[in-house]
Specification:
globular, 40% strand, 487 residues, mainly beta
Length: 487
């Protein structure tokens, strides 16, 4: 699919089924804060999956249903063609970041993993970048053979017949009639273990919290973005970076918007996009200038006259952007919608998907309990025909990118029965945003009810999810549990 907008044959909704769950918690089991998943990422091949959590750990999973990963007995059992879906298993985990303290600013730096990005593999080793609020690390994960001494020419049970050493002219020598010859110990490799080594640490380059990292298609550089700046790094150089975008005003009182997400174009190494808290997406060409203050294109949707309210700018803030695989489209997520943009058309989005429109009358409550500031991620299928994003009550939505397709999409729940709650968004035009601004309540609850009577729990939110690069497989995080679904 070249245009990223699914064909008519793709328009039919997929039948999503539960595949696997890792870290499933028992009923009533309390979730530890450090175990909550904060980042998910497939590698380009789709054979590996990485998750990061608030405790600073990175956990790797590998695909098990490929022929390369099966032994002979398993291959003989699967000699006939069987329609299978990708399955993964736990591979390894390592502690990526530790809690730190910035003594100059009297600031605690938590260990939470904000983003993970896979790098190019080499010599059978896996490489990835992980970052917390301040520090980016470059990791190499590879199998190493465990060497053990398997044979000695000394018999520990009969130490007397093993001979004795004497010191002659400053050199050790064996006594007569003891050893015919001296053999070196034999070393054998009987098992392998996975070892994660931190190859480089990219630190002290951001005054504000890092919200994005993105690899360049050249395989040599990557960017890191915080609220006000975007820096360009070379993977081989950890003590130097170049500031390529700086939106910090001379007077901080003049600050009107911040950077919320940034990503390199998947094909053109000179192009990147970044989003802002005002709902705009800017496309930047690195060939134009060393400091890219001037964008080449800007994508934004202008609000309808008279529709502005207290919440307009808050819900317009873009929390995540993703390029399509061919780089033709940009998928963006704001608080209420998913938008698909054609990089050749900056007049407006080519498609808008309403994620939880039924919550619009609850914006006042969402503001009071800070849920309105939640940052949901988005993802796109490898062929560009479908998009997905999360919502509350551990729900996520899947939409088809077809003009004739059902814009309501499919609602799934992160559980063993994903279709248990099929929530259809129905717009209720009974109250306007302008009327909501006059209703401000304190001590609001963390639940709401939609038009179908389904309750929404604002304390359980599905912020992080990822789509397999070549198959219809979605991995999503519900607190400390990793759920996987296939279609």
């Amino acid at each position: 699919m070249n245009n990223g907008m699914g064909s008519d044959s793709d328009a039919a909704s997929l039948d999503w089924k539960f595949s696997q769950v890792f870290g499933e918690r028992a009923a009533g089991e309390e979730v530890q804060e450090v175990d909550i998943i904060s980042a998910i990422e497939f590698d380009k091949s789709g054979n590996h999956l990485a998750t990061g959590d608030r405790g600073g750990r990175v956990v790797l999973f590998e695909r098990t249903d490929l022929k390369d990963n099966l032994n002979r007995n398993d291959l003989e059992k699967t000699d006939y063609s069987v329609a299978t879906h990708p399955e993964f298993r736990y591979k390894t985990e390592f502690q990526s970041h530790e809690p730190e303290f910035d003594y100059l600013k009297s600031l605690e730096i938590e260990e939470k993993i904000n983003k993970i990005r896979w790098c190019q593999t080499a010599n059978g080793a896996l490489f990835l970048l992980s970052t917390n609020d301040k520090t980016i690390k470059f990791w190499k994960v590879q199998e190493k053979k465990v060497k053990k001494i398997s044979e000695m020419n000394l018999d520990p049970s009969n130490h007397r017949s093993n001979g004795s050493l004497s010191l002659s002219n400053g050199d050790f020598s064996f006594q007569p009639n003891t050893f015919d010859s001296l053999r070196l110990p034999l070393v054998s490799c009987q098992e392998t273990s996975l070892v994660a080594n931190c190859r480089r640490v990219y630190a002290h380059a951001h005054d504000y919290h890092i919200n994005s990292i993105s690899n360049n298609s050249d395989g040599e550089t990557f960017i890191s973005a915080d609220d006000l700046r975007i820096n360009l790094w070379n993977l081989e150089i950890s003590n130097q970076s170049f500031n390529i975008i700086d939106v910090k005003p001379t007077n901080m009182e003049d600050l009107t918007e911040v950077i919320t997400s940034a990503e390199f174009h998947p094909i053109h190494c000179n192009t990147l996009a970044y989003s802002s808290s005002k709902g705009s997406i800017r496309l930047v060409d690195l060939r134009q200038a060393a400091l890219c203050d001037n964008h080449s294109k800007v994508f934004e949707e202008h609000e309808a006259p008279g529709s502005r309210s207290f919440f307009t700018e808050i819900i317009a803030s873009v929390s995540d952007i993703k390029f399509s695989k061919d780089g033709r489209f940009i998928l963006s997520r704001d608080y209420m919608t998913l938008k698909l943009w054609d990089i050749n058309m900056d007049s407006g989005p080519v498609a808008t998907f309403k994620v939880h429109e039924n919550l619009r009358p609850k914006l006042c409550d969402l503001y009071e309990n800070d849920s309105i500031f939640d940052k949901f991620e988005c993802c796109q299928s490898g062929d560009g025909s479908r998009v997905a994003t999360g919502s509350y009550s551990n729900l996520f939505r899947v939409f088809e990118n077809n003009s004739s397709a059902n814009k309501e999409g499919t609602t799934l729940e992160a559980s063993r029965n994903p279709t248990r709650r099929q929530v259809q968004n129905q717009v209720k035009p009974t109250r306007t945003l302008s009327s909501l601004t006059r209703v401000v309540r304190r001590g609001t609850e963390n639940t709401a009810t939609d038009s179908n009577g389904n309750s929404f729990d604002f304390s359980t939110k599905l912020l992080h999810l990822a789509w397999h690069p070549s198959e219809n497989v979605i991995a999503c995080a519900a607190a400390n549990s990793l759920y996987m679904y296939y279609a």
